[in-house]
Amino acid sequence: MAELDTSGGGKKGGGKVRTKKQSTRVDLTAMVDLAFLLITFFILTTTLQKPKAMDLTMPDKDEKNDQLPVPATRTMTVLLGANNRVEWFMGQPGNPLTAPTVTGFGKNGIRQSLLDKGQEVKAKSGKSMIVLIKPSDKSTYSDMVSMMDELNIVGNEQRAIVDITPPEIDLLKRDNVY
Amino acid sequence: MARAKVSRKSTSIDMTAMCDVAFLLLTFFILSAKPKVQDPIHADIPASTTIQALPEVDFSSLLVAEGKVVFSVEGGDVRMETLKGMADQYKISFTPDEIKQFASLDNYGFSIQFLKQYLAMTPADRAKYPVTGVPVDTTDNNELFWWVKNARKADKLVHNKELRIAIKGDAKEEYPTIAKIIKTLQKQKVNKFGLITSLKTATK
Fold it and tell me: Which among A13, A97, A168, B116 counts the fewest CB atoms within 10 Å?
């Protein structure tokens, strides 16, 4: 134990002068308390500050000859409009297989449609659904992130972010979400 | 009757070892903690349910808010190489001292023409310097394109690794700004990147 020998330096002369023996032990409880408090603080603050990210893979723009034709029956187009609204339909913009529907994000919004249509496509063709995301100029970054997140939640792997076309913007305008 | 004698023992325990350990750990955490870099422009990051941890080295982030882009890359050695590449590209010569100054710069959000002037400033003046954003447009030759390109080259040269790029965007940012940045990245065949998000639990 860390203790110093503090006994007096022997006897001096004839008189018995004794130095009082004092203990050098300090109560460390408070110090330990403080140290552990600081440790806890540092552990909690450091691990929570790490940035986390969602991966985004864009289709390669150059390899035109690599692209496979996409069957319209398996394709779902999601248009991102203003005010966190989305509009979706199956098939091509010119002649959609289902009527375009305006909805929002979340459990009862686009996620339900994604799940339903995904199962439908899977039952019909045996392959997974392809989702095309077309953000309009009025949509925000959080819309894009929410949409990618919805696809991650339903487990859709085949998706792509594509540029929006004028007929689709007209469609958004018609339904008051642009 | 004999009385049972309970020997009186001291209740104080020797705390020395415990104190040692506690302070050792404390020192470790303080030294390993990285000070949080203050972003020059504020961005409210959107939430998502699926997230992955980002690396701490070989990593570059593009902060996007208010229509401006702030570029940053991790590691002083990578920053120095990046600036050398940019100096060649824009025919601006930097002194070794300026390059060293740039290595300690956490983020950078203005045109390269003002960089020399910025590096000569005191930290107090730097904080007041307006953040105008790294110029970015839809052409092939915008400044952000070359910053990212040179950072990737520098990282390959210094660490021989691929630079991971992540976008840290404000949730309310309009999509066209993000589209411009994605296009800039895609022009140099960076098709995979991260979107920095905060964690949200899925409402199933």
Answer: A13
Question: Is B109 in contact with B70 (CB distance < 8 Å)?
Answer: yes
- For residue A45, pLDDT over 60 is answered with yes
Amino acid letter, A167: P
At residue B159, φ and ψ (nearest 5 deg) are: -110, -5
**Predicted pLDDT of residue B34:** 72
Q: How do residues A68-97 score in pLDDT, each as one tens digit? A: 667 778 888 888 888 888 888 888 777 777
CATH fold for the domain made of A71-174 = Nucleotidyltransferase; domain 5 (3.30.420)
* Span B122-164, pLDDT tens digits: 888 888 888 888 888 777 778 888 888 899 999 998 888 888 8
Query: Is A140's CB within 8 Å of B202's CB?
Result: no
Instruction: Tell if the CB–CB gap between A52 and B52 is shorter than 8 Å.
Output: yes
- Give residue A11's pLDDT: 46
* Strand-pair category, A86-90 with A75-80: antiparallel
Which pTM was predicted?
A: 0.75
CA distance B197 to B127: 26
* Inter-chain touch A53–B36, beta carbons under 8 Å: no
Residue ranges covered by each domain of chain A: 71-174
Pairing of β A101-103 and β B68-73: unpaired
Contact present, A69 and B201 (Cβ < 8 Å): no
Size of interface A-B (CB pairs under 8 A): 149
User: B69 by DSSP, 3-state: which?
Assistant: strand
Report the complex ipTM.
Answer: 0.74
DSSP assigned state of A129: -
Contacts of residue A152 in chain B, CB cutoff 8 Å? 48-50
